[in-house]
Amino acid sequence: MIWKETLEKMCESTYGNFVSRFQGICPTLTKQELHLCILIKLRFSNAQMSDIFGVSVSSVSQKKFRLKKHLSDSLEGVLPEEMTLDRWLAEF
């Protein structure tokens, strides 16, 4: 679990309090969803994330799909349907 905390701190310092800002707008995120957001923000590929989480690449794609749905439901109008989750997080 140390790697998750390290990545969280790195993302927080590199991307202007990304984690704090993100949790502020979506406090209902689970830790796993937050870690997925961090890996996406750090531009890890689906294959790299599948290795980290110990799941298939298609499982990562499904996690991202569900996360986008959760965020879309929680943040009405903030995450455009036509925008990918990866792009939205890169711009956040």
Indicate the low-confidence ranges by residue numbers.
Answer: none
Q: How many separate helices? A: 6
> Any idea what the shape is?
globular
Number of domain modules: 1
The overall average pLDDT, rounded, is 92
Give the DSSP E fraction (strand runs of 2 or more residues): under 5%
User: How much helix, percentage-wise, in residues?
Assistant: over 70%
SSE pattern: HHHHHH
Largest sheet: none
Radius of gyration: 12 Å
- What is the distance, rounded to the nearest whole angstrom, between the alpha carbons of the first and last residues? 25 Å
Strands, total number: 0
What structural class should be given to the helix and strand makeup? mainly alpha
Q: Quick recap of the structure?
A:
By secondary structure, the chain is an all-alpha fold. It has helices at 2-14, 18-25, 31-41, 46-53, 57-74, 85-91. 16% of the residues are buried.
Describe the structure.
This protein is mostly helical and 92 residues long. It has one domain. The protein contains 6 helices and no strands. The protein has helices spanning 2-14, 18-25, 31-41, 46-53, 57-74, 85-91. Helix 1 packs across helix 3 (31-41). The model has no long low-confidence stretch (mean pLDDT 92).
Please supply descriptive tags for the structure shown above:
about 90 residues; mainly alpha
SSE order and pairing:
Layout (H helix, E strand, L loop, with lengths): L1 H13 L3 H8 L5 H11 L4 H8 L3 H18 L10 H7 L1
Helix pairs in contact: 1-3, 4-5
